Every structure is written in C-alpha cells, then in structure tokens.
Amino acid sequence: MNDDRPQQSVGLVETCIARIPLPPEGLTLEGGGMLPELQVAYESYGTLSPARDNVVVVCHALSGDSHVAGTHSPEDKHPGWWDDMVGPGKGLDTTRFFVICANVLGGCKGTTGPSSIDPRTGRPYGSHFPAITVGDIVRVQRLLLAHLGIETVYAAVGGSFGGMQVLEWGIRHSDFVQRCICIASAASLSTQALAFDIVGREVIVSDPAWAAGDYYGTGRQPDDGLAAARMIGHITYLSPEIMTRKFGRRKRDLVPQERFSTRFEVESYLQYQGEKFVERFDSNSYLHITHAMDTYDLAEQHGDLRSAFKDVKARFLVVALSSDWLFPPEQSLDIATALVQSGKSVSYCLIKAPYGHDAFLVDVDQLARMIATFLASAQTDASEGLDRPNRPGTAGSNARNPPGAGGPPPVGTRQDDALIADMIEPRARVLDLGCGDGDLLARLAATRGITGLGLDIDVEHLINTVGKGMDVFQGDIDEGLGFIPDQSYDYVILSQTLQVVRKPRRVLQEMLRVARAGIVSIPNFANWMNRAHLGFTGRMPKSDAIPFEWYDTPNIHLATFRDFMGLCQADGIRVERIVPLGDAAISRALVKAGLWNLGAERILVRITRA
Amino acid sequence: MNDDRPQQSVGLVETCIARIPLPPEGLTLEGGGMLPELQVAYESYGTLSPARDNVVVVCHALSGDSHVAGTHSPEDKHPGWWDDMVGPGKGLDTTRFFVICANVLGGCKGTTGPSSIDPRTGRPYGSHFPAITVGDIVRVQRLLLAHLGIETVYAAVGGSFGGMQVLEWGIRHSDFVQRCICIASAASLSTQALAFDIVGREVIVSDPAWAAGDYYGTGRQPDDGLAAARMIGHITYLSPEIMTRKFGRRKRDLVPQERFSTRFEVESYLQYQGEKFVERFDSNSYLHITHAMDTYDLAEQHGDLRSAFKDVKARFLVVALSSDWLFPPEQSLDIATALVQSGKSVSYCLIKAPYGHDAFLVDVDQLARMIATFLASAQTDASEGLDRPNRPGTAGSNARNPPGAGGPPPVGTRQDDALIADMIEPRARVLDLGCGDGDLLARLAATRGITGLGLDIDVEHLINTVGKGMDVFQGDIDEGLGFIPDQSYDYVILSQTLQVVRKPRRVLQEMLRVARAGIVSIPNFANWMNRAHLGFTGRMPKSDAIPFEWYDTPNIHLATFRDFMGLCQADGIRVERIVPLGDAAISRALVKAGLWNLGAERILVRITRA
Questions:
Q1: Could you tell me the pLDDT band of residue B496, with boundaries at 50, 70 and 90?
Q2: Count of H helices and E strands in chain A?
Q3: This prediction's pTM
Q4: Residue B340: pLDDT above 50?
Q5: CA distance A3 to B328
Q6: Catalytic: which of B63, B160, B188, B521?
Q7: Domains of chain B from N-terminus onward
Q8: Which chain B residues have a beta carbon less than 8 Å from that of A205?
Q9: In a mutagenesis test of the A interface, which of B191, B210, B509, B528 is the best target, namely the one with the most A β-carbons within 10 Å?
Q10: Whether residue B543 lies in the annotated active site
Q11: CB contact under 8 A, B503 and A551
C-alpha cells in the first residue's frame, strides 16, 4: 500500500486474468450456445483467510467492471467504481474480508466477450458470440472461484444488474453462499426499464456502423448508437429531483455548433457521458448484457417468485433506494416479501436516497453502515448481540419508537417487555411491529429462543436490529402487513403503538391474520387520573402514559380499556389474558380492587381469534 | 352529420387551409428568422355565434394536428385526437361553442413548416426553415382568428405542449382571451423531460439520412432516428403502472427476426408506434417543435413566473394529472401558485389519472366535467351559482367535508356558516380551507360580495365549487399553505377541521401568516356530556359534535375549549371573538351561565396575531 494515500483506500491494485480450463466440449451456455475458451478478468482486495472462508463476491452492474476499488497507478485519479464501499474500515472491510469481483461474461474488460478473439477463427467473435444469461454470468464467477481454490462464499453483494447476479448466487449456488446482499435490483426488469433498454438496443442496431455486429476491424463502430443508448441510460440512473438540482435549465455560455443542439448544461452532460462511454465500452457487449438483463425473470423461470427462493439457504439483505425509478423499491420489496413467504431469513431496508438509481454508487454512507452491520452480525447469534452497544453514529436510544412518532418513549417499557416475554413460549415465531432497535426481539431470542422478524420505519433502528442478528423489515404498520402470509407467526407484538396508527381496527385484524395470537399494550384513557383531569380542569389529559400536548400528540386514536374490550367483542377477538398496569399507588390499589378501567394506566393483553 | 354515428360525435369534418396575407417583409419570427408566406391548416366544430363570442381555441400537443374531432369520411375509423372531449354535450360542447384548432407553425399537417415549399426557391424549406417559438405559434393562431374575423376568444384550451400555448394566449394576448385552461403542462420543461428531448433530437440528427435537414427529394429520410425518438416519447407518455398493466413482461408467440430483438409485447408496441409515426410525421417538424418546447421558459423570459402573469386578465383553470411524470403535477401547481401570487383568478385541480401524461387524451371523464363546469360557470356570477343544483354525476352532498376525512358531516354546519358570515365584512378577501362544494364561499360572495379561494382535497368538490363561479385549489391542509403569500387574504376559515389535521399548531400559524384574521370552529372535548361520558361510563365520548368511534375517527387531535385557548396564548394568537355553540338545552344554559368550557359543544372563534 502506498502510504501517501488515505488509509481507507485499498491503494494500488491490478486486474488479474484467469484462463479457466474447460472440458473439450467447451462451456455450454443456458441459451444453447457454446464458448471454446474462457478467460476471466478479476480484481481482489484484502487477504484470503487460511480457512478461505472470508470471501465476499462483488457483482458489478451493466457498465461496470472488475476494478471495484483502489487505483491502477500512482498517477491514476479515478479509483474503482465502488471505492467508497470497499476498503479498510468501509462497508466491505478489506481488513476482514477478501473481496473479489470479476468482469462479467460477455463484457469487454478482460473477460471473454464479443470483442474477444474466437480461437476457432482467430478473429473477434462479433456476431458469432452466443447469447448469455445471468445464470451463465454467475456460473463463470463460480468457475473462477473454484479455479482459485475457493469453495465457500461468505457473502455475495451487488447493486442493479449486480443484484440480479446476487439472486442467482443465492438460488443456484445455495450451498456455496452464506449471505446475499441485493441492492436496488429486481427479480425481473419493470416494463418501463425494459422499454428503455429496447430503445437503447434499437438505436445501436439501427446505426449502420454496427454492421450486424461484425464491425471489428472495419474502422467504424456504432458510436452514435451506443452513445445515444448511454444517454438514455444516464437519464434513468438519476432521479428527476437530482437532475433538476444538478443541471436545472442552466445554460453554457458557448453557442452550440450543431443545428438543434441547445445550450442546456444537461445536453453537454449527456453528450459527454455518451462520448466517454463509447471510448471504454463495446457495443456488442452492451447489447449482450442488456439482453441478459432484460430476459432475466426469476418468477417466469421458477413459476413464481416464492418458488424461486425455495432452496435458498443464505441470509438475505435486500436494500431499495427511495428515489430509484429504474429499479423501483416495490421490486426490492417483492424480492424480500417472496423470501419471507418462503420462510427464509431476510431483512429489507428502504434507504432514503435522493440520487436515484445511482445512489448505491455515490451516496453510500447509510448503505455502507447497513452492509457492514449485516456482515458483522451474521457471525454472532442473537444472544451475543443482546448487550452489544449500538454502533457510534446510529441514532441510538434503546427505547421502542412507535413508527411515525417522535417524542420521548412511553414509560414502563422495560417492565412491559418483561411481561410480554412472559406471554410467549419458547421457540415461538414472533413478529414485532414497531421493533425499534430490536431489543425485545433480541431478548426473546436470547431468553426464549424465538425466531422473529421486526418491523420498523426508521433505517437507523433497522441497522441496530440487524446488528443484533435479527431479521427486520422496513415498513409502516399503516400500510398493512400484506407481505406476510396468513398465520405465519405464533405471536405478533404491538407495544404502545395501536393508538398511533391510522386504522387501529384494521391493524388488529391484520395481526390476527398473520399470527396465532397478538400481544397488545395501550394506554387507558379511562384511568382515574385522566377522568379527573378532564372532569375538573376541563383540559385534555396528560400523563406519563400519554405525555403529549393535544396538538402534537402521535396518539391519534386514544381509547379506554373498556373501549378496547368493546372493539374486541364486536370484532370476534378473544382477550385471553389481561394485565392491567399502573405506576401510581392509587392506580395499583384500584386495579387490585378489580376496578381495572378506572385504575389501569396501561393495559397489556394477549388476544386471539374468538 | 351522419345519423348512423353516435350523437355526441361532431360527425364528418374537413380540414380547411387559410392563406394568411402577410406584409411585404413577411412574417418576422421571435428568433430573428422570416417566413415569406403563411398557410394555416385548421378545423372547426360548432357554430360561430352572431356576436362571435363563443370561440374556444384548442391548442394541440407535439405530435397533434388540427383534426381534433369527428372523422374525415364515412369509412374513416379514426376520429380526431380529442374526440372524447369535443362534440355535442362533451367537455367542449359544440352545441354551445365554436371550437377551432390550427395545426402549429412548423408542423407538417398543412400549416407552413420545414416540409412546405419555400416560394423563393420552389423547393421545401428543409434546413432553411427558421427557428420558431411558442410565441410564434400562438401569434399565427391569432393571425388565423383575425383572418376569420374573430376578435375575442372565450377560452383557450390545451394539454402538454398545447398548455404552453394556452399560457402564451393568457400572457401575450391578455385582452383577447377570457379563459385559459392549461392541462398537464408547464411553464418550462423539467430537466428530465428536456433530457429525453435532447436524446430524441440526437438520434434524428445522427441518422445519416437526415442530411442536415435537406432530405426531401433524396428518396431517404431519417426514419430510424425519428422512430427511435418517438419510441422514447411513448415511454414518457405512459405511467410505469400503466406500462406494466398494458404490457407487463408478456411475450408474443413469434420468434423475433432481428438479433437482439425480444418477444416482449412492449417491444412490438414501441416499434409499431415508431413505424406509424414515421408515416405521418416529418423529422424536421419534430426537431423544430421539440426545440420550441424545450426552449420555452416563462420564468426566464419574464424574470420570474409571477412577473410572467402580471398582465393576465383571463380566468385560469390549471389541471394536473396525478401519474404524469413528463409534466409532473408540481409544474402545474407552480403555474397556479404564481397566478395566485399575482392576484389572478385561478383554480387548480389534480386529477387522479393512472394513465400518465396521455391521460388527458384517453381518460377524460372527470377532466371533461371540470372543463364543462368551468366554461359554464364563468358566465354566471357567484350569486347565480348559489342555489343551482349540483350536476348529476358529481358526488354531491352540500356538506362541508374536512380534507382527508370521511363520514357524516358535523352537525350545526349551516348555523355555523351563518355565524361565520357575520364575522366577515363586505368585500373581504376570503380563503376557505376545506371548502367542500363551495357553498359557504358562494354564500359569502352573494351576501357579502367577497372574493375568495377555496381549498379542498376532493375533485368532485372542486368541480362543484368551480361551478359556483368560485376559485378553488386542490390541496391538503396538512401539506401547508406555502403557495399563498403572506397576508394575501383578510380572512381564512377553518370550519370543523382543526381536529382532523396532523399538525394543528402549524395550521394555525399558517392561517395567520396568509390572512389578517382566522375563523376557526372546533368541537369542545370538555363539554359536560363528554366529561360525564368518560367519567361515568369509562368509554371515549361520542356526541353529535364528535360522532365517531375511537378506532375510525378522523378527529385525531381533539381539544377542549380551554386547551385551544391555552395554545393560542402560548403561540401569541389573540382570540378576538368567541361564540360558544350548543344544541342541547343544558349546554345552552351552561353557556348562558358563563361556563363555556363545560357548556359549549362547539366553539367558533375569530383569531388574529396578538
């Protein structure tokens, strides 16, 4: 390592070329084609452990290559494409992991592709290069690892088209890979994304210089077509907001030379991107790789998405980016949902990222922390995670935080948690709605051996929950639990949250759809202190259990214990067990006297379908 | 009219050609160019009134033409591009209005454009056709009208690029046009939309057959380029949701002939759109019109958008489409906001339309009703509108409806409205938040001569309010009043709505920012019936004023009269006048005894900044 460089860089690196020995019949591809030889360009960072068990495979996107991090020479000003993510102390920590990335099959950066020499003819493959699939690309990655003597992958990580490769790793090489991190990706392209690729290919093959793919050595190549395809791509990689912020309608000073050119900065940006791309990329590779991406369709391949994941053994982290419209968050959620529905271990996280699809490349702070936490946690079990302090830098109160609500945590939390734990039998499957930092789940895992899933709205809470080795989904209870199949949990917990949701009735119904029993705690508006407060002062009650002013309370659906019981009765919900809770001496005395609706400050109930 | 056709069609129509006489120096264009001759193709429907005061000018979009409605022959199966909107009894009712549409300058459907013969050379203009602007296009429309003896326009209507022309009508010909309807448009293209046009032009001018614009008579034309530009366009005209619904990832049965073609239906759709367009459109026209659209920028032209509208006299209706990402709703809202800020008469409506930008062409039901109502109302004054029954088909309760809330209307509404009217002096400027069907505004207009603006969330309410001759904005109080300048109203009314908003405190502050005084009515939670209910039954109160169950109430921030007064005091709000209201005899007696917080079921207050 060059000591002058910042410590976090992997420093000077070089691309290696592996010639993978093939059987005499060559490499048969999924589309029926055959390659007589296979060469793979790759880079690696960090040190392979003696047990060879610290391998992280990075899968690159459409126009990426094996040069992920570091620089190729001391003068090189352009580090690899994911330098922010890969390096000592970074999201993929090279002091711990051996990170490796191979240029994809069909590419043009050293791995066998259409511009490679076909040994049978001594000329570039050109139009004779066979069709490839994502499955082929991942198989070549595995062949490379085998060639290097690596027989297990700690994690496969990739964004965009790289995320599709990660899915293939998890599905087709399930005994080989332990963790999968799929970022801003999809189990198949959306119709809109497909449409943009279709136009991109159209403009390339319409370029007369393409010559049906055999342009090598003609002195011409379909630069206009490839540049236009790249311009379309670059529009889709950015969110409209970022496009406006970066360029708006600002104009350059110079007068455009070409008729119908404009002075808009966004025009010179797109033209620059097109020109730069043409210098470094091969049109046939672009056609082959986008074709592989467009035809990738896990649901079609396996009947449906859930079936696609049935043999998955890896723990999954699925990350979506809020402003990504090329691979919209719903598509990541579909992946995560199908994994949940297949009973797999998966966390899903939607990162607020204004940059659009490119955010996974350029705005990696939170993503890197999530990835590092996921990779670190996966080696600990739940009990180890329990009392580990939160990472510095995460918004780290240990209090439960109702989704959508700010403000101080309700009182009695730890006491309530202990009572909740008492209601749950060992080894149960538990869903915790509004799981906060995952403390309750982690405690239940440690003391009761439960398996569980948390739901929370806050990414920092998610990171902390993942850090405790628990699975967690980002989501808003108000948007429903539609992704969870009927009766897939034994218990679902809703602690001090019912009163902040928009549709409490629907939430209760959903809870008893997804789980055998629900455990709910709510503040009791009919507590004697509240009655006295309203009755004598004529003002809205405030108390330890409902500590907010009327105008900024998150408690938008307050109810009394009796109201709650009334709703349960009306909706066919059986209240199996009731624990009236109170901190004040009078409250406790009233509860003891059986006057629960008057005495209880909070109530904790276990409910089932009647 | 052909009697076999449905009654609503305008029937058989034909395109007329007007040769507009020009001065000897020709038509000088804004960009400095000159045209030696001017021919305009147009169609008209309906009958010009003797007073020539029923003219509705339709402005067409990028690839449209003058053939708006009806058919060109009995065998013609393809009616004009807005046949759903124009005809007897339709949104633009041809039994009432004389509807006229001209093909734009620079077009290729009969109006002078790059493919027209340049009389100076006897050959098509080609590369010699001068640059045009939206201003030029609208000036030519006005020249056509003058040529036809028309000196006033009842309304100018247009969507997309047509909406830009409508803006020019309102700004540049302010004495000429009485009403402007601007649909799914913008005062300048967004950066993203600009970027797509830039790529579209790039692929056309990169097509070798373009020949720098002089391809006429060469036997070749840049079909590949134009088709690809059109394919890009078609992606942007549809919402991603509709693309998925229409095509998904469905495949055709046939095997694609071309390498890198796919079997996806969306590919054949896009190719078909490209091929069809090439048959009917001229590449140079596409370049010129998109260039005019891209360089149109009202804010740049006038310093800022507000200044652009300073001389507007027409009443505006600005309509946005919810799923339109090419001309996103924010851009329509910017137009409407700038008009409000310039003190102009404007209504703004966001129509829920899943179809994307194309919705104004293909999903016109609600849009047509809004347009018809706006055109009809504009001739009545507010008092006439007052007792007119709602149009059949509109969801027409006269009750006020808090934004975001369902359920029955609160009691006492009409009584409260009368008391509110008492608090407002004649000729005041009034903003009504949650205006429902506009009854209160219309009554205030009729009885107090106020001018006003309503705000509501429900499009059907908006249609009814517009029908009463009042201006109205679609909006959610929770999203703020940011579009309204400080102190632009005398009164702002918030009737039975404060308790349903998410941030009551911020709403009160906003109210007193935009208006001199606020008039607020809220239910009083401390009313004796509520206290007794909670105190004795231990259940959440329900009453006439708060008639909902705890679990589905829209009243998420209930307060007592005293609480409300407390907040006002804390926030420097002066409560100028208080009207405690009660329906029950005991309530009225308690109020009379001065026990307002105990007696009042509702309170009505007038507030100002202390």
A1: confident
A2: 21, 21
A3: 0.92
A4: yes
A5: 51
A6: B160
A7: 195-295 (1.10.1740.110), 385-609 (3.40.50.150)
A8: 258-260
A9: B191
A10: no
A11: yes
